[in-house]
Amino acid sequence: MTLQQLKYIIEIAETGSITMAAQRLFIAQPSLSKSVAELEKEMGITIFNRSNRGVYLSEDGTKFLSYARQIVEQTELLENEYKSAPPPRSVFAVSSQHYAFVVNAFVELVREYGKDKYDFTLRELKTSEIIEDVRTHRSDIGILYLSNFNREVIHHILQSEEMQFVSLFTARPHVFVSKQNPLVGREKVTLDELNDYPRLTYDQGVKNSFYFAEELHITRESPKNIVVSDRATLFNLLIGLDGYTISSGVLSSDLNGDNIVSIPLESDEIMEIGYILTNDRPMNHMTRIYLEHLRRYIENYSNS
Description:
There is one protein chain. By secondary structure, the chain is an alpha/beta fold. Among the domains are: about 1-85, Winged helix-like DNA-binding domain superfamily/Winged helix DNA-binding domain (Arc Repressor Mutant, subunit A, Orthogonal Bundle), CATH 1.10.10.10; about 170-270, 3-Layer(aba) Sandwich (D-Maltodextrin-Binding Protein, domain 2), CATH 3.40.190.10. The chain is built from 10 helices and 12 strands. The strands form 4 sheets. It has a 5-stranded mixed β-sheet with strand order 4-3-5-12-6, with helices on both faces. Helix 5 (about 100-115) links the parallel strand 3 and strand 4 (about 120-125). Helix 1 crosses helix 2 (about 20-25), helix 1 (about 5-15) crosses helix 4 (about 60-80) and helix 5 packs across helix 10 (about 285-304). The N and C termini lie far apart (about 55 Å). The relative contact order is 0.15.
């Protein structure tokens, strides 16, 4: 086993394709395939499963990748310390439900390290995809919420995958509406009062489950429903159709402008928003810095 082979494994896992990884590594595909096969034989495991769409990590491969990343990262730190080499490229990836404050913290991270080399990734995904991204170490952390309704199910999934949830803050439910919506100005609204307006929710794909929904009270019957896949479309429909969506109430005028208003929702539910990570991988420096920005933004918003 060589350090170069470990780097090969990381690149293939990130691209999901031996062909694409070979192009990015500037080596011939047969040479890369041979190197992977030799490493699998040496370790006595299958690191990648093959399919018509490319390759994906096996169960053993997922665990192997975690160790490989740690070795490569520690090697880069040693080289930087003792060989006076340029600082290693900063790497960080976060997968999240659709929250503006996640983007705000990401922006601050990029601003802080914008003069250095970095590979940062922000993915707004479906709930099941967030869990899978973190499980396979495609992302360092995932951001999602727990409620009275989904807590037991999500906790069970995380425990079975040897993952944990760390709370960031708890919010009472609010609705986002256009500032032109007739409900604006109310101290709070009830679920019954929302029946006249289209309910906007995020698509959860083929693994759709009420427990994976990003919105509270998803099992409550609504006469008007629109499912969307991205935050920009949802906000456009809030404005264009006088729709609403249920969320934490944390808004960002920097990203979303002043056209969206948050109104408290009368509800016995809560949204405990936090991050998930695997138990077998220590948190890297860049993840810690990102979480500092995230906590700072949340604190500043709460005090504003």
